[in-house]
Amino acid sequence: MEMLPMKKLLPAVLVLLIAGAAFAWFKLRPGETATDALTLYGNVDIREARLTFNASEHVDRILVEEGEHVNKDQLLATLHQELFRSRVAQAQAQVEARRQQLAKLKAGSRPEEIDKAKAEVAAARARARAAHDTWQRLQRLVAKKLASREEVETANSNANAAQAQVEAAQAALQLLQAGPRREDIAAAEADLRAAEANLDLARQNLDNTELHAPADGIIRTRILEPGDMASPLKPALTLAFANPVWVRTYLPETLLGKVKPGMRATIATDSYPNKTYSAWVGYVSPTAEFTPKNVETPELRTRLVYQMRVFACNGNEELRLGMPATVYIDLQAPVTAIPDCQKP
């Protein structure tokens, strides 16, 4: 049989090669494998907090350095506290004054005060009897023309005034015996609560002069120094939460239905080529976007992807911010409980 010339075979071979390459690209698109294992690329990311004082005053001390590890609730910095301590002392004195006033009202009148009021009633009655007797005597003298009507009228007025004093003294005695009104006690109790609230506010303002770590982490930046003016709008320190960390990567739209939060994953880095890190899918964006330019695979740049975060515990702090990483996800692995990196 006559062999076909080589020039005639070349076009057919090229067509077969192109068809095979197209089929392989369609079946094994970037980020997909035939073994249901997904490989993605991204960079390590971490959370940060810009810590601020909840008060306005000059910085007194900064107790940590950049790169220092800190624990939750650790004291990091303080403001000058003299003014705030004086306000606490003033509020405490006001509370004590209101408390004593309330105790006085609840105790009622002392026996000595009641005895004094009784004596004043007796004295008023004696004066009233004397005034009444003088008025009656002058009335008899008027009939004998030994006293004038003006003197009788004056004596009558004095007798009425003395009787009014008796009634006033009796009313004062009754008030002392009855004790303070319920309304006065309620008002004193309200004044005490207001003073106590003012004391709590003063103490809170004093506490606000201290800056504590909200969680375990690493001090990244000292923004303020002793002598600087601090305020709630001016960060003093930057704290990085180094555990857990995540790899920010992008999931192709064709695999969106296969990857779910909680699926197990593995992270590898160039810095530690012989070591992998246990991880899990923590977040898949609900909205699509075009692949960022920093993704190395050119074929993906024209496709829609979904941002994904793959979390990992970073107890040894080997995964650093911005570090390139490779993520491997077994698409057949079941969704399991998310680990707690804070537990030993």
UniProtKB/TrEMBL annotation:
<feature type="domain" description="CusB-like beta-barrel">
    <location>
        <begin position="244"/>
        <end position="329"/>
    </location>
</feature>
<feature type="coiled-coil region">
    <location>
        <begin position="88"/>
        <end position="212"/>
    </location>
</feature>
<dbReference type="GO" id="GO:0042597">
    <property type="term" value="C:periplasmic space"/>
</dbReference>
<feature type="domain" description="YbhG-like alpha-helical hairpin">
    <location>
        <begin position="84"/>
        <end position="208"/>
    </location>
</feature>
<keyword id="KW-0175">Coiled coil</keyword>
<keyword id="KW-0574">Periplasm</keyword>
<dbReference type="InterPro" id="IPR050465">
    <property type="entry name" value="UPF0194_transport"/>
</dbReference>
<dbReference type="Pfam" id="PF25954">
    <property type="entry name" value="Beta-barrel_RND_2"/>
</dbReference>
<keyword id="KW-0732">Signal</keyword>
<dbReference type="InterPro" id="IPR058792">
    <property type="entry name" value="Beta-barrel_RND_2"/>
</dbReference>
<dbReference type="Pfam" id="PF25881">
    <property type="entry name" value="HH_YBHG"/>
</dbReference>
<dbReference type="InterPro" id="IPR059052">
    <property type="entry name" value="HH_YbhG-like"/>
</dbReference>
<protein>
    <submittedName>
        <fullName>HlyD family secretion protein</fullName>
    </submittedName>
</protein>
<comment type="similarity">
    <text>Belongs to the UPF0194 family.</text>
</comment>
